[in-house]
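A quick aside before the break. I want you to see a complete sequence-to-structure record at least once, exactly as it would be stored in a machine-readable document. Don't worry about memorizing anything.
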Amino acid sequence: MSFERLDGRKADETRIARITTNYLPHAEGSALIEMGQTRVLCAASVEDRVPPFLRNKGIGWVTAEYSMLPRSTNQRTPRETGRGGPSGRTHEIQRLIGRSLRAVIDTSMMGERTITLDCDVIQADGGTRTASITGAYVALVLAIRRLMRDGKMKRSPIVNEVAAISIGIVGETALLDLNYIEDSKAEVDMNVVCTGDGRFIEIQGTAEREPFSRQQMAEMLELAAKGVNELVTLQRQTLAQV
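That is the input. The structure line, written in tokens, reads:
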């Protein structure tokens, strides 16, 4: 049984994606990414210090924080600050974003400074963690460019691009870039993070109901490669205009 997408997209089609740079005037780098109805505001902040385990080693650090605004969802989600701190899901997503960005930057070239990527979900309709990674990369590049303009860094430490996309199986059909309705019905849910040259940084895949085959896995990864390639192209076009 095939699954007919309510927004009319083909199975291998991503949602309309946009990235607006320099959305926040005070951040060293910022980008608003829109994937269909999902919107995430990503901001890069630079501090001239590193975590204790990196002090006096001449190495920098890249980390991330993630949150969802209370009315980014259909019903109000209480702020995590009022519930004793970030949930396990939030910690997991923050670590994923941080790992993904550190995979494409040579921290030994940063000096002893930290770049924090704040990813705040303004509107959620599926794929918030993958949109956060894709948008945070653009904010990171803009922050590095600013450091270079200010003479604080001679060369860019960024060694590759990074983008991420969701894939899933719904009604026995592999779909690219799931929205919330599709994600809630998915038999398999997967998030894939890749470099700009197509290498994998992370693959998160879970069978929500029936186990999936190796053939289905290959089909989903093929879809993911297509989606990531499109997003990397968008990143390149966006950054070329700044």
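Two observations worth writing down. Residues 214-240 form the longest helix (27 residues). DSSP finds four helices and nine strands in the chain. We'll return to this after the break.
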